[in-house]
Amino acid sequence: MIKTTVVGSYPKISSDKNVPNLRNALNQFEQNKISEEKLEEVYKATIIRVLKEQEDAGIDIITDGQIRWDDLLTPLARNIEGCEINGLLRFFDNNFYYRKPVIKSKMVFKDFSTLEDYKFARANTAATPGVAPKSLKVVLPGCLTFWGLSLNEYYKDLMSFGMDYSQILKKEIQRLDQEKVDYIQLDEPSLCFVPQEISLLKESLRTIFSGIKAKTILFLYFGSIKNLVPELFDLPVDIIGIDLVSKPENLSFILEADLKKELILGCLDARNTKMEDEKEILKLIEKVSMKIPPEKLYISPSCGLEFLPHENALRKLELLSSIAYKFNKTGV
Amino acid sequence: MLLTTSVGSFPKPDYLIKARTRFSRNEITEEELHLLEKKAIAEVIKFQEEIGIDILVHGEMERGDMTTYFAEILEGFGISGLVRSYGNRYYRKPVILGKVKRNTPITVETFKYAQSLTPKPVKGMLTGPYTMMDWSFNEYYPNRKDTALALAEVIHQEVSDLEKAGAKYIQIDEPALSTRPEEIDLAIAAMSIVTRGIKAKTISHICYGDFSKIYPRLLDLPVDQLDLEFANSNFSNLNLFREPKFTKEIAVGVIDVHSHKIETKEQVKANIKKALEVFPLEKVYIDPDCGLKTRTVEEAQAKLKVMVEAVREVKQELGIE
Questions:
Q1: What is the 3-state composition of chain A as percent helix, strand, coil, each rounded to the nearest 5?
Q2: At B173, is the secondary structure helix, strand, or coil?
Q3: Which chain A residues in 217-276 lie under 8 Å from chain B, judged by CB atoms?
Q4: Of A96, A308, A310, which is closest to B86 when you measure between CB atoms?
Q5: DSSP states of B91-129 as a string?
C-alpha cells in the first residue's frame, strides 16, 4: 500500500475565523496588547489544529506544519553560535522571503527547539482506540541548502562548512532519534542547482545519519534531478522525495533509474490552487509502481503547503488522501 | 537631460488609510472613498510640482497590491485566501479562473484626473503581463506562456486607451522579470504585445535581482526605457551594464526606498555621478529605486527633495539645463 505524507510547512492561519489566529496574536503581541503566555497558547492551539487537520485528511506521515518557523533556515541560524540573521531574500523563485543567515565565525551547536517541538507534536497526535497514532516527521535544512542560502564570511569553503554543519545536525538528530522519532527529513532544494556537490552531500549525510534508527528522508524540490541521477539513488538515506511538478521531466529520470530507494512522489502542486485530475495522478503513480513495490512508495505535495491559502492546502491534502485510497483499493 | 521622476507609489496619507479600512467594513461608500483618493492624488501632484519633479506620478492612491488591484477589475480573476510572504505579513493573490478580459478601462479615469491637475506629464502606470502571471494562481490557462500572452493582450488594450487619453509616458512594471532568467524570452514576447504600435514613451520597472543572468538580453524588452534599482545594492551591479553598452534610456534608482535614513545631498550626487560613468548623459533619468509606499509621508517627501536638489546641483556642475 502506498502512503501519504507532506513535505513540511503548512499555512499558519486558518480560513475558519472561529479558531485562534496566529497572525492577529503576533500583531497584538508586538503592540503589547497580549502577553507572551497568551501568544504561546495560540501557537500551541494552532499546532494542535494543524496536526488534527492532517490526521482528519487521512495523511499517514505528518509534521507540525513548521508553525513556529518563519522560514526553513532562521530557527537553526538563531541557535547556531557563529550565525547571525540578516535581511530578506527571495526563497528560490517564490514570492516568499526568508531571512539570510550570515556565517560570522566557527559554528557551534547551541540548542535547538526541534526536540521540544517534536515532543509537543507527539503528545498531541491523537491515538484512535485500536489504531496507532500517526507517524511524525521532523524536517531540517540540509547543508547544501543552508550554505547556498547564507552569506559565508568565515569558512574557507563549502567542505569545511559542511563538516561543522553536519556535526551540528548529527547531535540534534541523535537527540531526536533517542526520542524514537519515526521519520527524519533533510530538505535539499539547493542540490538541484549545485549538482556537482552531490559527493559532498553524500559525506554529510553519512555523518549525520550514521547509527540513526529513524527512517531517513532527503527531499528535493523546485529543481531538476537531471544532473543528479544515478548518484541520487545511492545516497545514504532510506527515502528520496522528489518534486514532480516544478520539473515534470523528473518523472522520466525516475523511470529510467535503477531505484534502490523508497520514493516520495511530490505529485500535487503545492504552489498553485488548481486541483489536479485524480486519474492523471493515478496514472503517474502506476508508472512508478511498475518499478518499485507500493510499500516503498509515498505520495505528497510537491513542496511545503505554505505557498497556498489554507482552504486550498486542505483540499490538496484531501485530494492526496483520496488518490492513495483509490490506488490502494484497486490493488494496482 | 537628467529629468527627475519616481517609480509609482507614494505613501497613503492617514486619512486615506482610515478611509480604506472603513470602506472594507462598509462604513463609507465607494464615492466617499473615491473623493478621498482624488484628494490624496491632488496632494501628491502638488507636492511633486512644488519641489520641481519633471515627470509626475499619481501615487497609486486608489491601489493596494499592484496585481490584486487589476485582478479585482479584470474579468476572469478571483482573489485567493491569505498567503504569507515573510514574517507575519500576509497578502491575497489573484486567481485566474477563466478567460481574462477587460470590459472597461481600468486606469484611464484616474490618469485623466491626475493629468488635469498639472501641465507636467503624468505617467500611465500598469503592472506587466509576466508579473501578473507569475504572481497569480492559475486555474484556467494550460501553461505559463499562454497565461502571460493572454494577459498581454488585455494590458495592451489599457495601454492603447491611456495613449488615446493623452499619456505621453506609460510605465508597465515587470518586477517579477528578474526572478526566472530562463523565462526572459516569454517576458519579451508578452511585452511586445503590450507595446505594439504605441507611440508614447514606454517604460518598465524591474526590481533588483541577478541581472547578470538576463543582461544584455534585457535590452530586447520592447520598451523605450528601463527603470532599475541601484541604491539598495550600493551600485554594485553598475559594472554589468558597461559592456555590452546599454542602448535604452535608463531611469537610475539613486534613493534607497527600504531605508528610514534620508540620504544626504552628497550621497545622492555621488550616486548620480556613478551612474553617469556608465550610462550616457542624454539617456539618464533620475528617480528612487522603487515605489515609495513603504516609507512614511515625511520620509518620502524628504527623500524626493534631496534627490531633486542633488540633480539640480549636478546639472549646474555639468553646465546643463
A1: 45, 20, 35
A2: strand
A3: 272-274
A4: A96
A5: EEEEEEEEEEE--S-SSHHHHHHHHHT-SS-B-EEEE-H
Number of domains in chain A: 1
B 178-197 → A contacts, CB under 8 A: 179-180
Q: Are B65 and B53 in contact (CB under 8 A)?
A: no
DSSP state of B13: P
Using a CB–CB cutoff of 8 Å, tell me whether B142 touches chain A: no
How high is the ipTM of this complex? Answer: 0.94
Q: What is the CATH number of the domain that holds A207?
A: 3.20.20.210
User: How many angstroms separate the CA of residue B4 from the nearest CA in chain A?
Assistant: 29
Tell me if chain B has a CB within 8 Å of the CB of A71.
yes
- pLDDT tens sequence across A279-293: 999 999 999 999 999
Q: Which residues, 6 or more positions from B211, have their beta carbon under 8 angstroms from its beta carbon?
A: B178, B218, B228, B237, B240, B241
Question: B63 vs A258, A330, B16, B58, B287, CA distance in Å?
Answer: 54, 52, 11, 11, 21
Measured distance CA(B258)–CA(B256) in Å, rounded? 6
**B83 and chain A: CB distance < 8 Å anywhere?**
yes
List, in sequence order, every beta strand (DSSP E) within chain B.
3-4, 75-86, 89-101, 124-127, 137-138, 169-173, 201-206, 225-228, 249-253, 284-287
The confidence band for A260, taking pLDDT boundaries of 50, 70 and 90, is confident
At B193-206, the pLDDT tens digits run 999 999 999 999 99
* Separation between Cα atoms, residue A265 and residue A284, nearest integer Å: 9
Topology (CATH level 3) of domain B3-63+102-318: TIM Barrel (3.20.20)
DSSP per-residue letters across A212-279? --SEEEEEE-SS--TTTTTGGGGSSSSEEEEESSSSTTHHHHHHHS---SEEEEEEE-TT--PPPPHH
Residue B6: C-alpha distances to residues A114, A197, B201, B228, B309 (Å): 46, 44, 15, 11, 15
Which residue in B has a C-alpha nearest to residue A307's C-alpha?
Answer: B83
CA separation, residue A188 to residues A232, A240, A243, B24, B210 (Å): 12, 11, 11, 42, 22
In terms of Cβ atoms closer than 10 Å to its own Cβ (0-12, 13-18, 19+), residue B245 is exposed
The boundaries of the domain holding residue A227 are 3-329
d(CA B260, CA B270): 19
CA-wise closest residue to A183 among A219, A229, A217, A140: A217
What's the pTM value of the predicted model, to 2 decimals? 0.93
The answer to whether A96 contacts B85, with C-beta atoms less than 8 Å apart, is yes
Judge: A26–B86 Cβ closer than 8 Å, yes or no.
no
Q: Which among B83, B87, B90 is the nearest to A308, CB-wise?
A: B83
Strand order in the sheet with B75-86: B75-86, B89-101, B137-138
Please check whether residue B113 touches A, CB under 8 A: no
Q: What is the pLDDT of residue A130?
A: 64
A306–chain B Cβ distance below 8 A for any pair: yes
The pLDDT score that the predictor gives to residue B201 is 98
Q: Is A43 within 8 Å of chain B by CB?
A: no
Query: In Å, how far from its chain's centre is CA B184?
Result: 19
Please report the pLDDT score of residue B304 as a whole number.
97
User: Which residues of A fall within a CB distance of 8 Å from B209?
Assistant: 90
In the predicted model, what is the mean pLDDT of residues A130-158?
A: 93
